[in-house]
Amino acid sequence: MLPIFADPKTDFVFKRIFGAEQRKPLLIALLNHLLELTGDRRIHDVIHLRADQHVDVPELKLSIVDVKCTDNTGRRFVVEMQVLKVEGFEKRVVYNAAKAYVMQLRTAEEYPALCDVVGVTICNFNLWSDRDENGAYRVPMLSRWRMFEQHCGQAGLGQIQHVFLELPKYAAGDSPVGLIDKWAYFFREARNLDVIPPALTEAPFREAMETARVATFSPEEWDLYDRAKMAEQDARGALVVAREEGLVKGRAEGRAEGRAEGRAEGRAEGRAQGEAEGRLQAKREVLLRLLSKARLTLSDAERRMIEDCVDEATLAKWAENVVGATSVADVFV
What we know:
- The protein has helices spanning 11-18, 24-34, 58-61, 89-102, 179-189, 205-211, 219-261, 264-293, 300-308, 312-321, 328-331; strands at residues 46-48, 64-71, 76-82, 117-123, 142-145, 160-166.
- By secondary structure, the chain is an alpha/beta fold.
- It folds into two domains: 11-217, no CATH class; 226-331, no CATH class.
- It has a six-stranded mixed sheet.
- The radius of gyration is 23 Å and the shape is globular.
- It starts with 10 loop residues before the first helix and ends with a helix.
């Protein structure tokens, strides 16, 4: 049985709702609500910016769904739906916002003309899971971040700010009341609904639901949506397999080395070393797979550099650098 509403967390549907020119009021409403802007501070218009070209790699592409825009003051927004929790996520979010900031420059004389950037990230997972003594999350579902002076707490250097909406922290069930709860309810539950619920019958939520209604999809759009969902499942599976393979290999090598030494200390060290090498090898394989899918050809020396690398952070950095790379040199920076 076909769903009535498509999953708004999917690349095609998210951009159909928030990335189309004719539906700018939906994007404006989302930004005003998540940034808690009222009165004269509200955004009244936005201009969609051309999206960066992402490498066509499912392991990365399916975890990043974004819409970029600017308002009438020049302030820029990078609105992302983070579907999968991937390694280095926080660093990538900071990088994306910082990149949107510095890419405004054309010459060094233009620093005073730089406009603020706000990164808005909707997470389909808990980013901060710590709870207080009463069981409440220490960081709420909607959180806003900017720099502040550590001695007196004075906020400043607000040129780059971040806003996060962590969907698993939603706790209002089928009765969302506030605007933030309604957006979280929409993103979490739209694909499971048969009708537009009472809580989402007013603007802008009704329009968002109607845009996600699959009956409005053309055959080509339905095919795009179907393939996007299958690709998302493939990406989830690839991440799980990579983690499991690394753990299995690490445990096996650890047990073998531990038995050879014949001492408890040797077994512990063997397991640790085996698991570490398993993690390293998994990262090497992921990096090589990303480079291959990005059609970046390695020389023998560059391949040996990857095989000889024993630093997990370096391998993770190289994997992140594949996104947007036009040459192998862009990766090893």
